[in-house]
Amino acid sequence: MASQTGERERPLATGPGRVLVSVYAVFALAATSRAAVQIVTDFHEAPLAYLLSAFSAVVYVIATFALAGRGSGARRLALTAVSVELVGVLAVGTASLLAPADFPRATVWSGYGSGYGFVPLVLPLLGLWWLRRRRPGVRGS
Amino acid sequence: MHSGLVAAVVTLALLAAAAGAVTAARNRPAGGLTLGLTAVAALVTLAQSAVAGVELVQGRRPPELATFIGYLLGIIVVLPLAAGWAVAERTRWSGLVVAVGGFTVAVMTARLVMMWRGASG
Question: Given an 8 Å threshold on Cβ–Cβ distance, is A33 in contact with B67?
Fold first, then answer.
């Protein structure tokens, strides 16, 4: 099925990629449920933090499905989502330290993901590494 | 939260995670022991959520009730999804997929207990 050199299909969700997808799925679940609870129960308390929570949830869900998908479209989507995730965790992490008053309630990205063992900080780096390693036309596992 | 069930969930989930990590270290796909432990851990997790749900119906109210219910429901799907994702590609990495699921269930159970203790002050 795969075409010849260069364009050879190199699925993301094989080998170590399957572990990466499972960790992303955990964070998609965690961020989505956290955002849902925050927005449903007390949105007025911290609208900015809760909207960021919802945004991070959307990013994790998209990244999970894109990393589990096949083809160049899924790859581009994964690269975008993981890049946004990295910018997000750095920006929200920095903002939550500099202006804690604006972040009275934690999001997944607060304190660079300190509430989740800093996994949210490491995960996009692993994602970018994996996308680079599985870019089309590169041999190896 | 039933303390016996909590102990069983954490123990079985971490055993499944360890079994998965060991098969991965041996460069083997997740086998019968890992998947069996995962199945039993998933069933005990379901029992834990059911029992806690009954206690909620009987009137216990943890302060973070919505989050607590979210965890009770979310924790049920983690191990079945991890097992399904693991057996779909039987390489050494399938064991690590199970390990991620088992570790997640153990952490989520710890969070559930913390939220539950918040209820009794």
Answer: yes
Q: Which of B66, B93, B94 sits opposite A40 (nearest CB)?
A: B66
Q: Which of B67, B70, B85 sits opposite A22 (nearest CB)?
A: B85
Model confidence over B47-81: pLDDT tens digits?
999 999 999 999 989 988 988 999 999 999 999 99
The SS3 assignment for A36 reads: helix
- The separation between CA B94 and the C-alpha centre of its own chain, rounded to angstroms, equals 17
Give me A114's structure tokens. Answer: 């300190």
ipTM: 0.91
Q: Give the pLDDT means over successive 10-residue stretches in chain A (141 positions).
A: 52 94 95 88 81 93 96 94 96 89 77 92 97 81 55
Pairwise CB contact (< 8 Å): A16 & B93: yes
